[in-house]
């Protein structure tokens, strides 16, 4: 889990430098695919339940599961979530970040920063003996205080030898509710935060989830390990310092 998560983090860091006006989401896909395979891993999304690409790229009103396309070229003012999942040594590592393309509006910056903060606040709740509901409660409280809504149609998830497994990790809920966390449990937190209404709908491609009101949505994701005393953020890019992945970035 440590190795696959480090590679997922390295891939996300690498691709961040390519998110620029004029780049297509297909080009971002191809760079990630090559980087992941060069490191002896496989991109988990490719062919997962029929998903046709190696990463998800979710632009502006797309909440998640956007499909990279050569026809989709990023423009100044866009926000784009890049979601990377790697399969290395039989284990999946999953992380994502929302990038601003050039200068973006104040509203766009706001939803991006709130979603980043929501992930950080969720992570602060992770400890053995804590409950999964503690995470969603902290996220929901902050999002609402900042005038944003929390997507309820997609959740974080257990991860390991399987891409998605128990526990389900909602980004809303009540303190003390849900499963109890225990040492060595690995799961993701990946809050999708909207500027408008929380509802989503799936486009005709069967994957792309958009906000019903077509207002902006942003997301950040980490894979976490519950330790004996708290939490270890396995996809923390800070872990790349001094590793061999750093030289290859
Ligand atoms: N990486 C996404 C997640 O965070 C899942 C993508 S599934 C795919 O759970 F099929 F769309 F790739
Ligand atoms: Co995930
Ligand atoms: Co993901």
Q: Count the domains.
A: 1
Class computed from helices, strands and strand pairing: alpha+beta
Distinct ligand kinds: 2-amino-4-trifluoromethylsulfanyl-butyric acid, cobalt (II) ion
Q: Class, according to the CATH hierarchy? A: Alpha Beta
- Low-confidence residue ranges: none
Between the first and last Cα atoms, what is the distance in angstroms?
20 Å
Instruction: Look at the structure and name the CATH superfamily.
Output: Creatinase/methionine aminopeptidase superfamily
How many runs of DSSP E, i.e. beta strands? Answer: 15
CATH topology: Creatine Amidinohydrolase
Estimated radius of gyration:
17 Å
Total number of helices: 5
User: What pattern of helices and strands is seen along the backbone?
Assistant: HHEEEEEHHEEEEEEEEEEH
Structure notes:
27% of the residues lie in helices and 25% in strands. By secondary structure, it is α+β, with helices and mostly antiparallel strands. The strands form five sheets. Strands 1, 2, 4 and 5 form a four-stranded antiparallel β-sheet that branches. A three-stranded antiparallel β-sheet has the order 3-12-11, with no helix packed on it. α1 packs antiparallel against α2 and α3 runs antiparallel to α4. The longest helix is centred in the middle third of the chain and has 19 residues. The two termini are 20 Å apart. The model has no long low-confidence stretch (mean pLDDT 98). It binds 2-amino-4-trifluoromethylsulfanyl-butyric acid and cobalt (II) ion (2 copies).
